[in-house]
Give the backbone structure.
Amino acid sequence: MDNFNYHRPSKPADAAKAMKKAKDGKFMSGGMTLLPTMKQGLASPTDIIDLGGLKNSGVTAAAAKVVVKAGTVHADVASDKGVKKAIPALAKLASGIGDPHVRNRGTIGGSIANNDPAADYPAAVVGLGATVQTSARKIPGDKFFTGMFETALKSDEIVSAVEFPVPKRAAYVKFPNPASRYAMVGVMVAELKDGSVRVAVTGAGPKVFRVPEMEKALQAKFSADAIAGIQVKAKGLNSDIHASPEYRAHLVNVLARRAVAAAK
Amino acid sequence: MSAISMKVNGKAVCGTVEPRTLLVEFLRENLGLTGTHVGCDTSQCGACVVHVNGKAIKSCTALAVACDGAEVTTVEGLAKNGKLHPMQEAFREHHGLQCGFCTPGMLMAAVDLVKRKGKKLDEATIRHELEGNICRCTGYHNIVKAIQAGAENM
């Protein structure tokens, strides 16, 4: 791993300043993706701005919404009693990210800012209709993920929290890669309190996407049968040594049906 | 270079490291605590698991500077007064290792698991919780048995 300048600011404004001064700076939260990427030589930033010093972690769960601060590790979301009660699907999603040691270090802010196409959290942000709070503004979940490893964040903008409205019912089901535990495909299905339904798919495409045909069918009738015949197109889906686009397209339907059946 | 200090296995330690120095490198090379292993170096295998402020983490995927001021426990910190920790004893008793390379990480993951989930652990829970620890010799059966027995004796 190449060397770099290390910064550990205690205020978001100082973090932004350090980023502006850096030639090729990177924010680091848990480092669960960034450090392995740097070790492989796929990234060599001149400056690492460690956001751990901001001490911005914790969860507030209320009847209407769950707010997860950006620095909250997956293990804390998974075990939080308030989250388990308000949005069990979110707690379950967090409990299936990586492995126990990764969950003790990786954070929600880091996960969504990195926007790995196979990460789990993007499915929750889009599927539950969440809002991303940053150091500068609020970004609707639907507008946050813009492309593979790309988000609407500006270069010195930092995620501060994610606000999840509590749905009527929801479930997240994923088919994990057996080695990495990343989602080959993961589907979040949610019926929101206003009666609208969201189906968000991660792992299958270059970034998280919704399936409007399924949403429409489920809005008319919330049952697995309602979407049995709805297949997403394989064209444009991810292809790698683990699965073909056709296989991923097939998984989307299977997992969406399982998620509908499991929604609570 | 940055000066860092931490408490490792109850002892205050300090050192000077480059920003890129990983926690596992600091433990092995600066402190000579070679019980913590590096297996894959890609955050998959779990041979490098240690406890930082009471939580199990992969020390090959943490910067030493980021752990400045932390309390760290490594496999060397499990045995007390020359007596093996109950989890170490259980691994010996149940033949939970062959080559032993993954064992330090298995032990640290197991002790963390008992802390989080208690002493009564069923097989499915243990197997699920071992997703971050890879063993290429045992086929896991005896590791699972050892953890179950070790948990009860903790």
In short: The first helix of chain A runs from residue 12 to 21. Chain A has one domain: 59-262.
